Amino acid sequence: MQRQLYLLVYPIIWLISKMPFWLLYLKSDMLYFLLYYIVGYRKKVIKQNLQLAFPEKLEAERNLICKKFYKHLCDLIFEAIKGMTITEKELGKRYTFENLEVLKELHKKQKSVLLMSGHYANWEWSGVLNNQNSYKNYAVYKKIENPYFDSFVKNLRERFGATLIKSKHVIPALYRSVKKDILSVTLIISDQSPRPDANGHRDLFMGIDVPVYTGTESLAKKLDFATVYFKVEKVKRGFYSVRFIPLAEDPNTKEDFEITRLFLNELEAQIRKHPEYYLWSHRRWKYRKTEN
Question: If exposure means fewest CB atoms within 10 Å of the residue's CB, which of 206, 214, 250, 276 is most exposed?
Fold first, then answer.
């Protein structure tokens, strides 16, 4: 059944990916109308998350953010599909890097890098970074249950040379790189929602007490990798700009959980400035601490 579903959906996705951007965004507008006004996709979750993160805002303000988020989410869906056939040249015009010298300097110092990113703006096009630096490029992803779609997504994100690693394989993969003296840069989405018993560490995210993922920081300290915030900003529809914000060149000089806090500070600042570009549809605060 999984194979039949994949064979049915794949040609449709491919045809959509061949459409020009103006037509893709027309379809995105149609999908927005469907998801927001008719289906109400995860609307309850989204509105609850916005109320938790922005209790000081009026309901009308949060509703406006909600609408803008749906529009961005629909754009993101079609942009991810477009990644199937877009040329590297065209993508390079739409997904630009402002200060690659940060990575170049770290490479000169023989430092591998962990890029810490959140579910913000567009992380699906980040693979275009691969051919713009001298590192071996990795990206961590979560396995999809359908093996055919899992393979499809993996191939899609590896189009420009990056290597995808399943989250449970990232530690051995990077240890192998170290043993082979391979300098690497690895993108890790670090704003996940771990179970409360996963590592025991909690912190405030958007002012809410929640379990916080500290795996990136722990890995950086074990391997002595530099940590850098991968700051993606939406310039306009279909165009993004990335800045590399150094967090810790020598991670072991930082206090425990300090790097994680620095990452959260950067992500929170982006969310507060343009909240519509954060992924409000995932249950980031489901394990929040509540008053008895």
Answer: 250
What is residue 275's three-state secondary structure?
Answer: helix
Q: Would you say 229 and 109 are in contact if contact means Cβ atoms under 8 Å apart?
A: no
| pLDDT one-digit tens code per residue, 50-105 | 999 999 999 999 999 999 999 999 999 999 999 999 999 999 999 999 999 999 99
Query: Within 10 A of 1 (CB to CB), how many other CB atoms are there?
Result: 6
Question: Domain map of the chain by residue range?
Answer: 2-277
Asked if residues 154 and 81 have their Cβ atoms less than 8 Å apart, the reply is: no
- Count CB neighbours of 147 within 10 A: 12
20 vs 292, more confident: 20
What pLDDT digit, counting tens, does each position of 146-194 carry?
A: 776 677 777 777 788 788 888 888 999 999 999 999 999 999 999 988 8
The distance in angstroms from the start CA to the end CA of the chain is 46
Q: Provide the pLDDT for residue 22.
A: 97
* Model confidence, pTM: 0.93
3 state SS of 58: coil
Q: What count of other Cβ atoms lies within 10 Å of the Cβ of residue 259?
A: 24
Q: Which of 220, 252, 235 is nearest to 115 (CA)?
A: 220
User: pLDDT tens for residues 201-223?
Assistant: 899 999 999 999 999 999 999 99
Tell me if 190 sits within 8 A of 220, measured CB to CB: no
Round to whole Å and give the CA distance between 125 and 117: 13
E strand intervals along 167-292: 184-189, 202-205, 208-211, 226-236, 239-248
- C-alpha to C-alpha distance for 83 and 103, rounded to whole angstroms: 24
Predicted confidence at residue 142, as pLDDT, reads 78
CB of 25 closer than 8 Å to CB of 75: yes
Helix (H, G, I), strand (E, B) or coil at 106: helix
